[in-house]
């Protein structure tokens, strides 16, 4: 799953996955 998909599932968590 890429960051784009994660941002759609968890927009607020994109900041958490930003470092990944």
Q: Round the mean pLDDT to the nearest integer and report it.
A: 65
Give the helix tally.
Answer: 2
Using only C-alpha atoms, the radius of gyration works out to 7 Å
Task: Give the uncertain stretches in residue-range form.
Answer: none
The chain-level structural class is mainly alpha
Largest sheet: none
The percentage helix is: 55-70%
Strand content: under 5%
Distance between the termini: 12 Å
What global shape is seen?
A: flat
- Please count the beta strands (DSSP E, at least 2 residues each): 0
Order of helices and strands: HH
Biased composition (Basic residues): 7-20
Region (Disordered): 1-20
Task: Quickly list its features.
mainly alpha
Q: What is the topology?
A:
Layout: H1 3-9, H2 14-17
Description:
- Helix content is 55%, strand content 0%.
- With 20 residues, it is mainly α.
- Residues 1-20 are annotated as: Disordered.
- Residues 7-20 have a biased composition (Basic residues).
Describe the structure concisely for a colleague.
This protein has 20 residues and is an all-alpha fold. The protein is 55% helix and 0% strand.
């Amino acid at each position: 799953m890429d960051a784009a998909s994660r941002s759609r599932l968890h927009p607020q968590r994109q900041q958490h996955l930003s470092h990944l």
